[in-house]
């Protein structure tokens, strides 16, 4: 059956291959009850398709639903331009662009205040039924050149003020994206996420995957068995099956055939076959982090998971966020989540990625870390901060100015001094024309110091 399956992009409301999950019911019921909802998960998990499907159901109930895709605005905008774009897009989708444009011209307040006033004074006045505003690709706010905490705080205020303003009970928000709540908003006191409903997107159960079976009719004697063959990227596997299966597959061959199909068309040389990008997206999500030390640690955790895991996949559906894909907590034990990730991001790949992250093994055994190792020296941040503060105190102290760092042999004294304190002094305390030197006193400390002073620039 041609064009039955869709891989990549948002499925339209009438897509034959859309497979409802528990999340469909959860989101529908929560939004209909007026709860603030957020769907934050990895890419290509069906978040946008889920939002479109549920929005269609809610519209059939007489509820006004607007989906605003934020990535289309761009990121090189001023705060004024961004909020104006937000209102313009909402106005177009609601059919009240002229009213909102007029409001914008006549209300010279701050951008976030104008946005909220426009919703309350124009949108809620124009529509008498319930209104749901869904913002997709919400993680784009992390790339904007201005702080967006006020955007989320404004959403929370709408829920806080419902008791005083009954009209706000008709207004509901839904956020969709890939970032975590803490990534989106730093101010924990004003965050809306602690009063909202998280919608958990899990993989398909076998029963939930059954709507995909009709597309396999004529390709296999037992289409249901094909759906059991590979517990990940279900739509893509089904599409590959239809494209590369000439004769109907006889019953009993499904598992082996699907395993071979997945290996040759998804896993083997996956970088050149990952279209639309999925494995690449998850790889980048793991590796492209601001802190290379955290990346190295996470890669190490992923390397540990297959060793201690039970090795069985949990469901017959799509994977989830990469940091949960290779391992998830099940009764306190990490467990492999799906077969494709385990084979693509295997021990060899993880070891190579870990080597490239910090260029070399960050563990030096019994050798001391040096100043040039500062980037991969971690775990002593609190002690380094204490030592730095003591050095500040020494700057105004009477002579002799001495800060001893004492401890048993092998406890890391030299490492914290060289890779912790020295770089911290140069970054935060000492002027550019001050030079920091380290010398080992030996049995002749004055002679060693004289040598150092002679060679110092």
Textual characterization of the structure:
This protein has 457 residues and is α/β, with parallel strands linked by helices. The chain has three domains: 177 residues, 3-Layer(aba) Sandwich (Rossmann fold); 161 residues, no CATH class; 71 residues, no CATH class. It contains 20 helices and seven strands. Strands 2-3-4-1-5 form a five-stranded parallel beta sheet, sandwiched between helices. The chain has a two-stranded antiparallel ribbon with strand order 6-7. Strand 3, helix 6 and strand 4 form a beta-alpha-beta unit. The chain is flat and about 85 Å long. About 6% of the residues have low confidence.
What's the SSE blueprint?
Blueprint: H1 22-32, E1 37-40, H2 47-60, E2 64-69, H3 79-94, H4 97-106, H5 111-126, E3 131-136, H6 149-160, E4 171-177, H7 181-184, E5 197-198, H8 206-209, H9 223-227, H10 234-244, H11 254-267, H12 270-273, H13 279-287, H14 292-308, H15 322-325, E6 328-330, E7 333-335, H16 339-344, H17 347-358, H18 381-395, H19 413-428, H20 445-455
Parallel strand pairs: 1-4, 1-5, 2-3, 3-4
Antiparallel strand pairs: 6-7
């Amino acid at each position: 059956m041609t064009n039955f399956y869709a891989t990549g992009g948002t499925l339209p409301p009438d897509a034959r291959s859309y497979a409802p999950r528990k999340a469909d019911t959860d989101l529908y019921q929560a939004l209909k009850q007026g709860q603030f909802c957020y769907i934050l998960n990895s890419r290509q998990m069906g978040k946008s398709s889920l939002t479109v499907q549920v929005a269609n159901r809610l519209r059939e109930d007489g509820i006004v639903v607007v989906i605003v895709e934020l990535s289309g605005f761009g990121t090189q905008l001023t705060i004024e331009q961004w909020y104006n774009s937000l209102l313009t897009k909402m106005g177009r989708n609601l059919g009240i662009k002229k009213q909102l444009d007029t409001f914008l011209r006549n209300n010279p307040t701050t951008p976030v205040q104008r946005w909220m006033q426009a919703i309350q004074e124009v949108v809620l006045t124009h529509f008498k039924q319930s209104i749901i505003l869904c913002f997709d690709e919400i993680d784009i706010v992390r790339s904007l050149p201005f702080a967006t905490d006020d955007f989320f705080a404004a959403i929370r205020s709408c829920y806080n003020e419902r008791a005083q303003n009954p009209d706000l009970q008709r207004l509901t928000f839904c956020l969709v994206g890939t970032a975590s709540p803490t990534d989106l908003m730093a101010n924990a006191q004003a965050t809306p996420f602690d009063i909202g409903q998280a919608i958990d997107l899990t993989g398909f159960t076998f029963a939930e995957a059954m709507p995909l079976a009709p597309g396999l009719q004529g390709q296999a004697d037992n289409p249901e068995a094909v759906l059991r063959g590979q517990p990940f990227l279900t739509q893509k596997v089904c599409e590959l099956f239809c494209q590369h299966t000439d004769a109907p597959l006889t019953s009993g061959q499904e598992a082996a055939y699907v395993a071979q199909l997945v290996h040759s068309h998804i896993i083997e040389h996956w970088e050149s076959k990952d279209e639309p990008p999925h494995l690449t997206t998850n790889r980048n999500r793991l590796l492209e982090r601001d802190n290379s030390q955290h990346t190295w640690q996470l890669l190490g955790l992923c390397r540990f998971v297959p060793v201690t895991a039970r090795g069985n996949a949990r469901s017959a559906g799509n994977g989830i966020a990469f940091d949960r894909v290779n391992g998830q907590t099940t009764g306190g034990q990490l467990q492999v989540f799906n077969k494709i990730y385990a084979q693509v991001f295997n021990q060899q790949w993880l070891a190579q990625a870990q080597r490239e992250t910090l260029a070399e093994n960050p563990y030096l055994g019994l050798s001391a870390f040096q100043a040039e190792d500062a980037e991969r020296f971690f775990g002593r941040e609190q002690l380094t901060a204490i030592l730095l503060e003591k050095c500040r105190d020494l700057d105004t102290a009477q002579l002799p100015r001495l800060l001893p760092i004492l401890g048993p042999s092998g406890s890391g004294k030299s490492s914290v001094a060289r890779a912790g304190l020295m770089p911290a002094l140069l970054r935060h305390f000492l002027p550019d024309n001050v030079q920091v030197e380290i010398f080992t006193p030996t049995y002749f400390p004055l002679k060693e110091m004289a040598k150092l002073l002679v060679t110092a620039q």
